[in-house]
Amino acid sequence: MRSAEMARLAGVTVRTLRHYHQVQVLAEPPRTSNGYREYTIRDLVRLLRIEQLSGLGVPLERMPAVFDDADSEELSSVQLLD
Fold it and tell me: What region holds the HTH merR-type domain (predicted)?
């Protein structure tokens, strides 16, 4: 999905997406041959998590650490299920 659709689905602006790329809480996706950013569902989920955490008062600069901890917990859970 492109930037406008991603922003619309998450209830943010395209400018907000660019800001999140700039402060590195949301990785910039690869571009298509015509220069458009191509987002995935995983990107949308991360964006929704960023918005939730931001609404709870978590500063943007702390979010990478929060995501790293959550990813580690998810991996641990998966390993336990196997």
Answer: 1-69
